[in-house]
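Appendix B: complex inputs.
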Amino acid sequence: KAGVTQTPRYLIKTRGQQVTLSCSPISGHRSVSWYQQTPGQGLQFLFEYFSETQRNKGNFPGRFSGRQFSNSRSEMNVSTLELGDSALYLCASSLAGSNSGSSSYNEQFFGPGTRLTVL
Amino acid sequence: GNSVTQMEGPVTLSEEAFLTINCTYTATGYPSLFWYVQYPGEGLQLLLKATKADDKGSNKGFEATYRKETTSFHLEKGSVQVSDSAVYFCALSDYNFNKFYFGSGTKLNVKP
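Resulting structure:
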């Protein structure tokens, strides 16, 4: 079974530009979560999508947005890039993601990440 | 609120040494607890997990026990190898399950 894939793997942008990152979950997984990883802040939760709906959201400004398509693929968009947005962006997929009470449905599988550098 | 605190790194050990990486958490309700490992240039991989108090997760020689009374989930390995060099993250998921909270990560360097 193919793992979680993220494209592109590396991206260089300048301040003020916008960027779109893509994540393809493991086949059959309906939940996709996004995280920002930086040396200073560690791993921070951005948002989670399940069945095309944003279900959880972290504490990030509105410049960070996302969406999920009917095939569970997800994109995240960052507008008006700032230098501090330079980070590794990770996405993770899981099976059901519902309050099923079973952790096996909710184990998260991570992609390799997209390394974004803002100049 | 929910949070995870893990020991600062880097941790440098010689091969075959005993490893402990401390992790404590704050959570409402009954969270599930996880250890993830990140090798250079890669995403995170689940190492082990425990879903209720007193559960012991284990994988590849690593172990961690869910201690509700001390709100801890310390990672241990009896004999580390050079290939264990990576960054280790402790995490919890709340009842909603798909919102994860990660510790800051602990870098482990194992020298031959």
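Chain A touches chain B through 27 residues (CB under 8 Å).
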